[in-house]
Amino acid sequence: MPSVLHVSNLGKTFTLHQQNGVTLPVLSEINFQLEAGECLILRGRSGAGKSTLLRALYGNYLPTDGSIRVRHAGAWLEMVGAPPRSILAARRSTLGYVSQFLRVIPRVSALDVVTEPALARGVDPEKARRRARSLLDNLNIPERLWRLSPSTFSGGERQRVNIARGFMVDWPIFLLDEPTASLDAANRGIVLELIAHAKKRGAAMIGIFHDEAACEAVADRYLEMGAQPAYQKTGETKYACGTNFQ
Amino acid sequence: MTLSAISFSPETAARQFLPVSDPDDSMPILSVRDLTRLYGPEKGCQNVSFDLYPGEVLGIVGESGSGKSTLLAALSGRFAPSGGTVRYCQTSGEWLDIYATSEARRRQLFRTEWGFVEQNPRDGLRMGVSAGANIGERLMAQGARHYGDLRAAGLQWLSHVEIDPARLDDFPRAFSGGMQQRLQIARNLVSSPRLLFMDEPTGGLDVSVQARLLDLLRGLTREFSLSVILVTHDLAVARLLADRLMVMRRSRVVESGLADQILDDPQHPYTQLLVSSILQT
Amino acid sequence: MNERMNETAAPPQSEDSYNFAYLDEQTKRMIRRALLKAVAIPGYQVPFSGREMPLPYGWGTGGIQLTAAILGENDVLKVIDQGADDTTNAVSIRRFFARTAAIKTTTRTQEASVIQTRHRIPETPLQHGQIMVFQVPIPEPLRFIEPSERETRAMHALEDYGVMHVKLYEDIAAFGHIATSYAYPVRVAGRYIMDPSPIPKFDNPKLHKSPALMLFGAGREKRIYAVPPYTEVESLDFEDHPFEIPRWESCCALCGSQESYLDEIVTDDEGGRLFLCSDTDYCETRQNAMNMTKGGA
Question: What count of other Cβ atoms lies within 10 Å of the Cβ of residue C282?
């Protein structure tokens, strides 16, 4: 399978100027590659930098050094130092980010929240809405809520709306930040099904899952983060991946 | 932040089959270099440079007195800067130096390809004429001489900005603040501008009305793929509307980049202070 | 009526102590220079340093200065106020020049070489060589919507005239038709937008390609503008609401004219009313002609 993501020597150090310039080295010397159809699970204790890595891959955090190359629109896009519009273009068509937290936009209905990524890609609105409806339906969001803004929804409902949004489009690369956290068994099963389906289609995934069963179900490889050296779960993978903590 | 060199190792040979995409494949719509206008030491703006691309929404944030509004005035052709250039890429693809061209051409731009949404709608509307005349003015200035067509455009734009079309003949002073602001937006967008300047568009509005206006603006900027330069001190507004941010402090741009990156991972001490003290989302 | 005819025959005694036509020669030269510029740029408002005149602002101080500057010893002056030769303002101004310039005055449009007017253009077609002098209260047609003089000047300079149609749009929106009935804005020679002074829009077509020279003077605002002979003067309008002049269902009660601009006169408390020509000279000429025909028959 073709490689879709190259991360080399990635480092991220936070400097907190408001707190006497304290520096927090969170990521350093991260190296890995990702192929289409592959799922890489990030593992490590809390604070090991798993979410930081996902956010850096999405362009949300600014890496301190290293390189992130994404296969985007038939070319490699260097995300580190890329102009905002290039990162936005990659987010529009290549990188999907599914988190457990939905940033609610006032007055925008759940259906529109879910449909938006498809419209941004230029998908036919009617087709997009059909898919959005079926996703919301699968994730057990009652139809009477579709026309309402998720600002009034419960935490679980918001999370599921966000998952529907995340799976609205066939992203080549998924960044999954605990999508199954705090879901009940039935809904977790549906999310895992969505993931499996996307994988089968050829999507590459990097995810954080706290629930071991979910990990087992989707993982091809693991990337250990934190003090320990990385190890690979499946022998077939030919790329080294891991972290060297300084 | 430095862009580290990439070493091509044998196992990463796969990527060499693909070209590295060139981010500069399209032309900017506005190109700004070393723009300076100072009223006193660190009062105003200095050495501001950036390119704005078609469809981009650029937010300029910073506290009061940081020079945001001065910068906006200099960018939008309202006050000549003391140094630097503002160049606009016309529909024809030719560059126009805003301050080197004639006043006549500047004015023509202002009422056709550019728009300006004032913080106070009273400054951007003609309060003494009806909503329909406010909307139709740009069209009439461009030579529209058919009353029926002007009315049709007025009706269409009122519903676009979610004002009851039955109020076409009402005066703006009979409108609420939020409606006046939406009318001002309609008045600007009727000429299908490519570039829109906005100065604190949600400034004087109630929170509930703000949300509605923000949502409308968000939709309109996408629907008409407008390039927007937006001045705001409200970081929540910036997050919702802007693709990119420039953070100003004491007349200088201290940080710029992707909007959510600036807000979630600010680098400059001042931005960190701004984000930690204001943003609670 | 005969009294007025006598006026021409026996002018009031002239006042030798005044310079010819009241104004000093330097002032007249200054005004003539402004007039030349105004004629050269049709419709453009030329500032001039207007003088104090022995009548209040609003009574024609602009027009009277222009008249003073252009009068020669052989000129014949007619003065009308809303079409009438016999109103206080018209009589006073006519007598003023009769005394200070010792020139001939007349009420006959055809005989006059200079006609100073407030708010009308005579019905009798003007001829080559005649000069109309209009009294103008507010010379700036953009003033109603733009209070800043600096801005209106820039708008004229850059032909930034979009707002003019805003006013007409508002008329149609409010009344269903363009209700502006006087001071109806015109475009002169395809360039400047001009306020034709508060003449009824009925008179606007008379400005278009008129053989006479039209001069406009605003005393309070100290502006002069002009429409040279045979200049295009186009009234602003919309494609689907074209410029129209008013028509009356009745005709003049005295001369029977159906073509002239009519004033409505209330005759009693029972709602009785009459329509009369606003142009008294035109009306009298027609009445005299009718009497002649009757007498001859």
Answer: 21
Active site residues of C: 43, 252, 255, 277, 283
* CB nearest B130 (choices: C165, C173, C240): C173
Q: Is C169 on the interface with B (CB under 8 A)?
A: yes
Q: Is B281 on the interface with A (CB under 8 A)?
A: yes
Task: With beta carbons less than 8 A apart as the criterion, state whether B215 and A108 touch.
Answer: yes
Distance separating the N- and C-terminal Cα atoms of chain A:
33
Cα–Cα dist C26/C141, whole Å: 30
* CATH code for position A139: 3.40.50.300
Domain total of chain A:
1
Q: How confident is the model at residue A183 (pLDDT cuts 50, 70, 90)?
A: confident
Distance from CA of A193 to the nearest CA of B (A): 30
By Cβ distance, the residue of B126, B145, B168 closest to C239 is B145
Residue of C nearest to B130 (CA): C170
The pTM assigned to this predicted structure is: 0.84
- Count of Cβ atoms closer than 10 Å to residue C234 Cβ: 15
Residue A23 lies in a domain: no
Q: What is the ipTM of this complex?
A: 0.85
* 3-class DSSP state of A235: coil
Query: How does pLDDT run across B222-263, given as a tens digit for each residue?
Result: 888 899 999 998 898 899 899 999 999 999 999 999 999 999
- How many Cβ atoms sit within 10 Å of the Cβ of residue B125? 22
Closest CA to C40 of C192, C199, C222: C192
Show the domains of chain B with their CATH numbers: 10-279 (3.40.50.300)
pLDDT tens digit sequence for C8-35: 445 556 667 889 999 999 999 999 999 9
Q: Residue A137: which H helix or E strand, with range?
A: helix A125-138
Q: Which residues of B touch C241 (CB under 8 A)?
A: 147
Q: Residues C164-200: pLDDT tens digits?
A: 999 899 999 999 999 899 999 999 999 999 999 999 9
Residue-number span of the structural domain to which A181 is assigned: 37-64+81-245
- C30-49 burial: b if 16+ Cβ within 10 Å, else e: bbeebbebbbebbbbbbebe
